[in-house]
Amino acid sequence: MIKSRLFTPGPTDVPPEVLVEMAKPIFHHRTERFKKLFGEVNEGLKKLLMTSNDVLTIAGSGTAAMEAAIACAVPRDKKVLVANGGKFGERWVKVAKTYGLDVDEAKQEWGLAISAEFVREKLATGRYGAVVVVHSETSTATACDLEAIGKVVATTDALLIADCITSAGTLPLRQDDWKVDIVAMGSQKALMLPPGLAFVSVSPKAWAVIDKITPPTLYLNLKAYRKSLADSDVPYTPAVTLIRGLKVALDMIHAIGIEKIWARSAVLAKACREAALALGMKIFSKQPSNSVTGIMYPEGVTDKAFRKTLREKYGCNVAGGQDWLEGKMFRISHMGYTDPVDTIGLIAVIEYTLAECGAKVEIGKGVAAAARVIKDWA
Amino acid sequence: MIKSRLFTPGPTDVPPEVLVEMAKPIFHHRTERFKKLFGEVNEGLKKLLMTSNDVLTIAGSGTAAMEAAIACAVPRDKKVLVANGGKFGERWVKVAKTYGLDVDEAKQEWGLAISAEFVREKLATGRYGAVVVVHSETSTATACDLEAIGKVVATTDALLIADCITSAGTLPLRQDDWKVDIVAMGSQKALMLPPGLAFVSVSPKAWAVIDKITPPTLYLNLKAYRKSLADSDVPYTPAVTLIRGLKVALDMIHAIGIEKIWARSAVLAKACREAALALGMKIFSKQPSNSVTGIMYPEGVTDKAFRKTLREKYGCNVAGGQDWLEGKMFRISHMGYTDPVDTIGLIAVIEYTLAECGAKVEIGKGVAAAARVIKDWA
Questions:
Q1: Which of A203, A239, A369, B105 matches a 20 to 30 Å C-alpha distance to B185?
Q2: Hey, are the CB atoms on A367 and B378 less than 8 Å from each other?
C-alpha cells in the first residue's frame, strides 16, 4: 500500500476525524444550529491566536484574508511598509499596489527576514500608516521575529498586519501580547482542513482605523463580517462543511494544547535540519522557520526525479523551490497533522530517494540523527 | 497532535477512503444495488485468495468463519487433526470439541509450527477426515509452511482447513495452487476494515464432503451461503456498510497488486526483526511470520509501562503477549494499511519508549538498521 502523505506547506493532511465530519449531510446556514457552531468555532480560533479579538471567517483562501486586511486597514493618507523576502512578500506588494496604496517595498535577501530594528527606523519618520510582514515566508522557509516587530509597531500609530498563514497554529504566536493588529490565517495549514477558509483577527486599534476607511470591496469588507459576527453569523454564504470540520480540528488542537503543538513543530523542524546536515545537505534559510524546512539538493539530484520518486514510490509529497530556487531546493512542512513517526519515516524515504537519484547517501544516518533530536524532546 | 496508529495484529488501521465510504447513507440489501456490489466484492476476494472458489461472506468475526468450516466440513466418521501451537490453535481444538468431533490435538512448542512431514505421517494412517492448521499463529508470531502441508493433504481424502485470518492478504497464499480446501479470513486484518466480516472459501473437494453433512447450525451453515451467493446474495442480513468499505479496500489492494503487498509485508517484518536485534532484543519465534513480529522485552522493561507510554505518548498501539508470554513480549503487525514510513517511525518511538522504561538503548541504532533493510528492497 502506498499511503499518501502531504508534507507540503499547505495543503496539509486532513485527519480522518475531520474528513468524516465533513462527509455528513449539509445543513442550512441561516439557522440557530449554524450560529451555535459558528460561535463555538470563533471561541476556538480566539484561543488558538491567544487573542480577545473576534476572528472573522471568510469563504476564500489565505490571500483573501490578506487582501481584506490591506483593502480595509491601511490608511490612505500614509505610506505602507511591505516587507518582501520571498514569493508571499511579493504578493502583498502586488495587492497593496492593486489598491493604489503608497507602497514602500522593503526587499530582503531571500533567506533573511525583516528586522524589528529596520521597522523602528522606518516608522520613526512618522510617514507610515501600516507595516505588512510575513511571519513565516513559506517560499524561503524563513521566519521573522514577529514579537519584536510587534513591540516596535505598538509604540507608534501604525498598524501591524501579519501574514500568519503558515505560522498560526505552528509557530509561537500570541496576538494580544505581541500587539499584532491584524493576523491573517488560512484553513489548509496548521488547521488541518482542506483549503477554502480565510481568517482575519482584528485588534481594537485596527478597527479604529478601519472605521474611517471606505474600502473599494464588498466581499472583503471586514466591517460587514464584524457586524454579522456580533450575532454569530456571516454576511455571505459560509462554507458550512469546512466550518464543521474546523470545529473538530480545533477541538483536536485544544485537546493537545497549542503550546505543546508549537514545541512539537520546533522539534520536528530541528530533526529535519539535523538529518539534512547529517546527510551532507544544506539548509537554505539563515533564519529558518519551524513551520517549513527548505533543504538544498545535493549536486546531481534533480528536483523532478526526486519529488516524483518520493511521491510515486513512497507516497510522500514535499514541495519544490519557487522562483530562482526552483530545482535547487525542496521543502518539508511541519504544520498540522504530522508527528514524529511521520517525520522520521519521511527522512528514511528521502534517504532512499536521494540514493536512487544518484546521491551518495549513508542509509540510516539521517534517520538516526532525526531520531536523536526527537528523543531529546520526547 | 498524537496521531493514533494501530500496529496491533487486528484490528488494523482503516484507510480514510474506506472510512468515508462507510459513512455514506445505508441502503437496503434486498436490492439489485446490493447484488451488484456483492458480486464485485466476491470477485475481488477470489482474486485476493488466488482461487476460483466462491468466497462466502458471513456477518461475524474470524472465529465464525473457522467455526463454520469445522461445523460443516469435518466428516463425522473420521478423526480431525488440529494443530495447536498457540492461542488460536487452542481455540480450534475447543471449537472441534464443542461439535463433539474426534479431535487429535497436535501440540507444538510455542514458536514452532506444525510440519508437512508430521501431517504426512498422521494422514498415512487413513484415520483422518480433516486437518486444521493456523497459517499464521498470531499469539506466537509464527507461520507454518501451508504450501507444503497443502501438497501433502492433497494426496489424501482428507480436507485441509486453514485459519488464514492473519495471513490472507499479507503472507503468500495461493489457495488453488496450494490445494487448501477451506480458507478462513476476517475483515479487520489485511483487508483494512473494522471487525465484523468473516470469509470462508471452499474448494470443490470440500463441497463434496460438506454436502454429505447436516451441520447442527443454521447461521453457520455454509450450504445456505453457497445457495444465496449463486444469486450474488446472502441468506441472512449482511453488514452492508462493511461490504461497501470492503469494495473500496479490495480496489486499493488490487491497484497495488497482492504479490507486491506480500513482498512489502516481508520487508517490513524483516526490518522490525533487524531493528530488534540491533537494539539487543530477541525474536520469540523460531519460524517467524511476516504478518506479525513478536519481540521479547529486554530485562527490566515492563509490558504495562512500555505499551502505555508507546500508546499515550506516541499514539502507537502494539499488542502484548498472550498466556505465559504475557508481560514477556510485544507484537507488531505488518498487515494492511501500514508502510515503510510508519514502520521506521514506529521503531524510533519504540527506542524512546524502551529508554524511558529504563532499558539501555542507543537511539537511532534500530531505525538505521530498519532503514537499511527497507532500502535493499525499495
A1: B105
A2: no
Q: What is the C-alpha separation between A163 and A185, in angstroms, rounded?
A: 7
Dihedral of CA A185/A191/A192/A194: which sign?
Answer: negative
Q: For this complex, say whether ipTM is above 0.90.
A: no
pLDDT digits (tens, 9 = 90+) for B159-187: 999 999 999 999 999 999 999 999 999 99
Whether the CB of B267 is below 8 Å from some CB of chain A: the reply is: no
CA distance B36 to A231: 50
3-state secondary structure of A294: strand
What are the φ and ψ backbone dihedral angles of A142, each rounded to 5 degrees? -125, 140
- Do B1 and A264 lie within an 8 Å CB cutoff? yes
Question: What is the model's pLDDT at position A1?
Answer: 59
Query: Under a CB-based contact definition with an 8 Å cutoff, are residues B277 and B369 in contact?
Result: yes
* Contact check, Cβ <8 Å, B355/A344: no
The C-alpha atoms of residue B183 and residue B262 are separated, in whole angstroms, by 17
- Whether the CB-CB separation of B356 and A18 falls below 8 Å is answered with no
Residue A74: helix, strand or coil by DSSP? Answer: coil
* B367/A348 CB distance under 8 A: yes
Q: Which residues of A touch B378 (CB under 8 A)?
A: 313-314, 349, 352, 356
Output the nine-digit C-alpha cell for B101.
468431533
What is the tens place of the pLDDT at every residue in B43-64?
A: 999 999 999 999 999 999 999 9
Give the separation between CA A314 and CA B252, rounded to whole angstroms. Answer: 15
Nearest chain A residue to B13, by CA: A16
Residue of A nearest to B192 (CA): A1
Contact A301/A358 with Cβ under 8 angstroms? Answer: yes
Residue among B331, B295, B299 at smallest CA distance from B316: B331
Q: How far is CA B211 from the centre of its chain?
A: 27
CB distance from A194 to chain B under 8 Å? Answer: no
Which residue do the cell numbers 514541495 mark?
A319
Residue A169 contacts residue A44 (beta carbons within 8 Å): no
Q: Which residues pair with B292 in a beta bridge?
A: B333
Contact A337 B364 (CB under 8 A): no
Of A52, A56, A50, give the one whose Cα is nearest residue A38: A56
CA distance A330 to A350: 11
Q: What is the pTM of this model?
A: 0.88
**Which grid cell is A233?**
453569523
Give the Cα separation of B371 and B272 in Å (integer).
10
Q: Chain B residues with CB inside 8 Å of A337's CB? A: 1, 3
pLDDT of res. B39: 97
What angle (nearest 5°) sits at the alpha carbon of residue A87, between those of residues A82 and A88?
Answer: 50
Domains of chain B: 5-10+258-377 (3.90.1150.10), 16-256 (3.40.640.10)
Chain centre distance of CA A345: 24
Q: How many CB pairs under 8 A join A and B?
A: 147
**Interchain proximity A344–B367, CB inside 8 Å:** yes
Distance of CA B61 to the CA centre of its chain: 12
Separation of alpha carbons B72 and B63, rounded Å: 14
Residues 6+ apart with CB under 8 A from B167: B135, B136, B143, B146, B173, B289, B291
In angstroms, the CA A162 to CA A201 distance is 10
Rounded CA-CA distance B214/A268 in Å is 62
* Phi-psi group of B301: left, alpha or beta (phi > 0 → left; psi -120 to 50 → alpha; rest → beta): beta
With 70 as the cut, is the pLDDT of residue A378 above it?
no
- pLDDT at residue A2 greater than cutoff 80: no
Report d(CA B362, CA B356) in Å as an integer: 12
- 3 state SS of B32: helix
CA angle B176-B178-B183, nearest 5°?
A: 70
